[in-house]
């Protein structure tokens, strides 16, 4: 018998991984999806904070890098490399959370910047993934201004995020993970449901 969410859509996942660069709209998609499925929602940023609290920069330098460095003098490629290194360092924690939800049958939506397509593709069919990709730095800049107006225009962050997002989307295609372009926003959730079905 097909499992349906509260909106009547057929659900084909037990764990859904929503990846994408900062500002792409993944959180705005993940939260209503979790609600519709009756699923727990975990933000990968919370796993970063949790793992940082029980490790040190000496033992896990990639996990702690952004606590001790900023990106002012880094190129987009250098920022990308640091993001990927952090994602690799975080993988054991991410894997443990996914495995726990597969063992307990409690559905989960896990969303964040540090879900790499190569990791997402390593799971069985009950784990689905999507990469939300906003390629336009101007749109990302607008998104940051909307949600963090006190920070002012964050042009470098938007440029770096667009570069990381392009890389994630290319990796997603390589690993047969669907890529969702969030615009037009009015149809994003319906298009995501189509991708996942």
Commentary on this structure:
- The structure is a single chain.
- The protein has 197 residues and is an alpha/beta fold.
- The chain has a single domain, classed as 3-Layer(aba) Sandwich (Rossmann fold), CATH 3.40.50.300.
- It is built from eight helices and seven strands, in the order E-E-E-H-E-H-H-H-E-H-E-H-H-E-H.
- Helix 3 crosses helix 4.
- The two termini are 15 Å apart.
- 37% of the residues are buried.
Please outline what is shown here.
By secondary structure, this protein is α/β, with parallel strands linked by helices. It is 52% helix and 14% strand. The protein is globular and about 45 Å long.
Features:
single chain; 197 residues; alpha/beta; Rossmann fold; five-stranded parallel β-sheet; two-stranded antiparallel sheet; 8 helices
């Amino acid at each position: 018998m097909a499992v349906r969410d509260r909106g009547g859509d057929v659900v084909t996942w037990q764990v859904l991984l929503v990846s994408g660069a900062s500002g792409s709209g993944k959180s705005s998609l993940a939260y209503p999806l979790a609600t519709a499925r009756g699923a727990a929602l975990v933000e990968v940023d919370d796993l970063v904070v949790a793992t940082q609290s029980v490790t040190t920069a000496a033992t896990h330098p990639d996990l702690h890098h952004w606590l001790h460095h900023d990106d002012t003098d880094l190129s987009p490629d250098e920022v990308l490399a640091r993001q990927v290194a952090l994602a690799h360092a975080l993988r054991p924690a991410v894997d443990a959370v996914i495995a726990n939800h597969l063992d307990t049958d409690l559905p989960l939506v896990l969303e964040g910047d540090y879900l790499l397509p190569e990791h997402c593709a390593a799971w069985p069919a009950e784990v689905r993934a999507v990469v939300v990709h906003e390629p336009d730095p101007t749109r990302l800049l607008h998104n940051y201004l909307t949600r963090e107006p006190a920070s002012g225009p964050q042009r470098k962050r938007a440029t770096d995020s667009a570069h990381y997002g392009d890389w994630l989307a290319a990796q997603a295609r390589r690993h047969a993970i669907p890529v969702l372009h969030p615009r037009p926003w009015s149809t994003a959730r319906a298009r995501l449901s189509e991708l996942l079905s």
